[in-house]
Design goal:
- By secondary structure, the chain is an alpha/beta fold.
- It is 38% helix and 14% strand.
- A hairpin with a 2-residue loop joins strand 6 and strand 7.
- Helix 3 crosses helix 6.
- Bound molecules: pyridoxal-5'-phosphate (PLP).
- Pyridoxal-5'-phosphate binds next to helix 3 and helix 4.
- The site of pyridoxal-5'-phosphate (PLP) has 14 residues, from helix 3 and helix 4.
């Protein structure tokens, strides 16, 4: 829609740049199954993300499923309901039970203080989400995981390019999953990756990704699936990676513009700024306190919609409230997540968004609040 402002726009290279990359794919006559573009992107990502091991996939969701399968998890997984559908679906699809834990009111990530009380003799792992790009309390979660012999997995779909204490965020946890979906900071149209500390996982992860076949073996060693990244997708990743730093810079400018306009308004909670973290400015969520403001999140969303601006209510409803899960798994007590889901709105943010559009959005919000 012309003149409308969506919540995000995809990062796209110059068409000619992509065509040049595709020309090589045509010349190679190699379209999928770990071809040269796949290998090139994997190598570049290893460097860019500052990780020792990375495997690429056709999307982030299958990558997460494969992570849980490679770790042979069975039983209960403690997780957050304040996330995209994928996190919870991956747990259930692997035959595990999601145990919903509340989130911290400031970071909106899994509240480590509430994890231990949920651990039983069936607990096998913690699956936490670096939601909106905010980093989980890794040290605390690691301590709990080690104490109880649990795996620690991160849904890092929102955090491509984030650094913690100078290290790539993909170095945290036993396995981290990143999404390269079109709407994410970095995309391969559809795509994703796993990063992990144990190099011996590579062969297993990639076998499960390719119908369970290990290299050079005609008999499947694992119950596998098909989640391979194609050469066409990898070519897109190679192009986008050349421009990612510039895109993150541009996002940062919009992010700062929002901060400067909104940070003094009583009744708005903005995304938490973390020390020792280099962020990727992936989302700009705002939590609206209806009691202070006298206006609801939904009314503010409506005011923006009337001006052709389309923020999103990520993440409403909580995954624990999905109709497919509501009567199946115990919801648990998650008062913080319940309240955030009711009051949060993710404002538009993308690299090529203009400062004028950002100011227009802030004007509309301020006006709606003052009414
Ligand atoms: C996007 C996203 C996923 C899924 O990634 P896909 O690449 O779209 O499959 C998983 N978890 C979270 C939190 C996401 O935002």
């Amino acid at each position: 829609m012309k003149n409308s402002i969506p919540v995000t726009r995809p990062l796209l290279p110059d068409f000619e740049e992509y065509v040049a990359e595709l020309r090589e794919v045509w010349e190679n006559q190699w379209l999928t199954n770990y071809g040269p573009k796949h290998q090139q992107l994997e190598k570049s990502l290893k460097e860019y993300m500052g990780v020792d091991n990375v495997s690429l996939f056709s999307n982030g969701h299958l990558a997460l499923q494969i992570a849980l399968r490679a770790l042979e998890l069975k039983g209960e997984i403690i997780t957050t309901p304040f996330t995209y559908a994928s996190t919870t679906h991956a747990i259930v699809e692997c035959g595990c039970t999601p145990i919903f834990c509340d989130i911290d009111p400031v970071t909106l990530t899994l509240d480590y203080k509430k994890v231990e009380e949920l651990i039983t003799d069936k607990t096998c792992a913690i699956l936490a989400v670096h939601v909106y790009g905010t980093v989980c309390e890794d040290k605390k979660l690691r301590q709990i995981a080690d104490k109880h012999g649990l795996k620690l997995i991160y849904d890092a779909a929102h955090t491509f390019g984030v650094k913690v204490n100078g290290k790539g965020i993909g170095t945290l946890g036993d396995i981290s999953m990143f999404s390269f979906h079109a709407t994410k900071v970095f995309n391969t149209v559809e795509g994703g990756c796993l990063t992990y500390s144990d190099p011996s996982l590579k062969a297993k992860i990639e076998a499960i990704c390719s119908f369970g076949f290990e290299k050079g073996n005609d008999s499947a060693a694992y119950v596998g699936t098909n989640a391979k990244m194609t050469e066409v997708a990898a070519a897109m990743g190679i192009c986008n990676l050349r421009h990612i730093d510039e895109a993150l810079n541009k996002r940062g400018k919009i992010f700062e513009c929002y901060n400067s306009r909104l940070n003094k308004i009583n009744g708005l909670q903005l995304i938490c700024q973390q020390e020792d973290v280099v962020t990727n400015y992936s989302y700009y969520p705002v939590i609206f306190d209806q009691e202070i403001l006298g206006i609801s999140r939904d009314e503010i969303a409506l005011a923006l919609n009337q001006e052709n601006i389309f923020p999103r209510k990520y993440f409403t409803p909580l995954t624990s409230d999905f109709s497919c899960y509501k009567n199946r798994f115990s919801h648990g007590s998650t008062p913080v997540a319940d309240s955030v889901a009711e009051n949060v709105l993710v404002l538009p943010l993308y690299a090529d968004m203009t400062i004028e559009d950002c100011n227009k959005i802030c004007d509309i919000i301020c006006e709606a609040i003052q009414k």
